[in-house]
Design brief:
Elements lengths: L11 H4 L36 E6 L10 E9 L9 E5 L14 H9 L2 E5 L23 H19 L6 E6 L1 H12 L6 E5 L6 E3 L2 H13 L2 H17 L5 H7 L11 H20 L17 H8 L7 H15 L9 H9 L11 H12 E3 L14 H12 L6 H11 L9 E6 L19 E4 L17 H18 L2
Parallel strand pairs: 3-4, 3-5, 5-6, 6-9, 7-8, 9-10
Antiparallel strand pairs: 1-2, 2-4
Helix pairs in contact: 3-4, 5-6, 5-8, 6-10, 11-13, 12-14
Length: about 500
């Protein structure tokens, strides 16, 4: 249901009974959804956050469609002072994690600025179920345009019913929600005063081999030999895959859940991408302070992976590559790795809300097939992996949803809708980390004085959003301070 109708001149009357401590979301930073589950964001169940519900429209772009559904959101009025700003955190491609209602950098900003904090879960993720299932027909209502309209309707109704029409609203988000934060300010400038668009990929592209190029550079920054050894290992594995007599040993070396079978290029590509995903995930979230989310494995860093790859006592690079896989399995209590493409397709085709990929995999892959692309292929020579080229990614759109394998038109539409790198707006800041592969599709240099970038050397995905810790790099602390200074300046305008 919507918020209560009392005025925010006495904000406590609306939210005192809702005991939540702070504001944020599931993972504001998970645009590389991993089916390997090596870095799934956990959920802490004892955060004290309370769910609330908003009556939302199903289709904002059809006046003839009057259907509605309940969208989940959270509220924190702990720091709110009359007339203060309203911080609206945008949910992303997974369940809203109430742990973010207790921790996060923007709580510091909220406390200093007297802000009210709201978090709106993204449609089709978490408990926000607009339709009875996740059939391809129903996923037609899953898009960034519909999500932005959700934000606009939520903001309009909340402001009117809670006496917040004169308050300045600030949008926050990281990764895909960071893109939404920027686009919310772009498309609805009358509703949102400013946006913090952290680690936001703002340019849609079918092929995104630059992701793995950044992985190479990030590994090389730890030790120049590290990505070279990864490449040797990946090449050696591909050579072995050419000989079925090696499959039994490969199954044992990588502790696969079932005997390795390569019957098509899709089978080998899926297997190779699964193993490469261990490195991709660690690089993306390297040393981010994510323990509070219930995340397992934050102790596995680029330094740890490279130490394994540089350890000659483990054998050849291939053997060290297998040792990395076993390390990840042990860390995440996984007895084995499922590397069967057929099994994955069966799981992600399941359209039930209780299906194995309903946590976000089925939904996010659909969005990549219909809006963004973002496929992290091995089509560049300047990266350490091989064997999962662009056609492998595109074929999944057909295998899962029966969609076209040509995305050029939908990608063009997305960039026409939002402007891509040529975004024209104001009061949007774009923080990015140099280690994070997603910065390759983001804004890393100022577009204009009103569209500044904050490029943070040595940090990973959404690092500025996470709680501070004593070991934070000086440049990360300075970045958080700069963002706060921009917030202060923009709120004064």
């Amino acid at each position: 249901m919507a918020l209560s109708s009392c005025s925010y001149s006495s904000v406590k009357c609306a939210f005192t009974a809702v005991f939540v401590l702070s504001c944020l979301l599931y993972s504001p930073c998970s645009a590389r959804y991993r089916r390997t589950k090596s870095f799934e964001i956990g959920t802490r169940g004892n955060s004290g956050a309370v769910e609330r519900w908003f009556i939302q429209r199903l289709d904002h772009f059809s006046g003839a469609d009057s259907r509605v559904w309940k969208q989940r959101y959270f509220v924190n009025d702990t720091f709110y002072k009359d007339g203060g700003p309203v911080f609206l955190m945008i949910g992303g491609e997974g369940p809203a994690n109430p742990a973010w209602m207790e921790f996060g950098t923007w709580l510091t900003y909220a406390q200093k600025l007297g802000a009210l904090c709201l978090l709106l879960e993204h449609r089709f993720y978490g408990k926000s179920h607009p339709t009875e299932d996740l059939s391809t027909e129903n996923l037609h209502f899953l898009s960034s345009r519909q999500a932005l309209a959700d934000l606009a309707h939520f903001r309009t109704v909340t402001a009117e019913t809670q006496g917040l029409t004169s308050n300045k609203w600030i949008a926050f988000g990281g990764s895909y929600p960071g893109s939404l934060a920027a686009w919310f300010r772009l498309k609805y400038p009358h509703l949102v005063h400013a946006s913090i668009a952290t680690s936001a990929p703002i340019y849609a592209t079918v092929n995104f081999p630059e992701y793995l190029e950044v992985v190479w550079r990030s590994l090389a920054a730890e030790n120049p030999e590290c990505p070279l050894l990864v490449k040797k290992a990946a090449d050696a594995l591909i050579q072995r895959l050419a000989d079925p007599q090696t499959f039994e040993n490969i199954t044992k070396d990588f502790r696969l859940c079932s005997p390795l079978q390569i019957q098509s290029e899709m089978d080998s590509a899926y297997f190779l991408e699964t193993l490469a995903g261990n490195f991709m995930d660690v690089v993306q979230y390297n040393e981010d302070n994510r323990d509070f989310e219930g995340v397992v494995g934050t102790n596995i860093t680029i330094e740890v992976l490279c130490s394994v790859m540089l350890d000659s006592s483990l054998g050849e690079p291939y053997d060290r590559y297998a040792a990395v896989t076993r390390l990840m399995q042990n860390t995440f209590n996984q007895p084995c790795t499922n590397a069967e493409y057929r099994s994955y397709i069966l799981d992600i085709r399941n359209s039930s809300w209780s299906g194995p990929e309903a946590g976000g995999g089925r939904q996010w892959v659909y969005q990549t097939c219909t809006e963004f692309g973002f496929y992290q292929s091995t089509d560049s020579p300047n990266q350490p992996f091989s064997g999962f080229p662009l056609p492998y990614h595109l074929q999944q759109c057909a295998d899962i949803y029966g969609l076209s394998t040509s995305l050029d038109d939908v990608i063009q539409q997305t960039n026409e809708e939002y402007g891509g790198y040529d975004i024209r707006s104001s009061r949007i800041v774009f923080p990015n980390g140099s280690i994070d592969p997603w910065h390759a599709l983001g804004v890393t240099q100022d577009i204009s004085p009103e569209l500044p970038a904050v490029f943070i050397k040595g940090t990973a995905h959404c690092a500025n959003m996470y709680p501070s810790q004593p070991g934070d790099l000086p440049q990360l602390r300075l970045a958080r301070d700069r963002i706060f200074i921009l917030l202060q300046r923009w709120l004064a305008e």
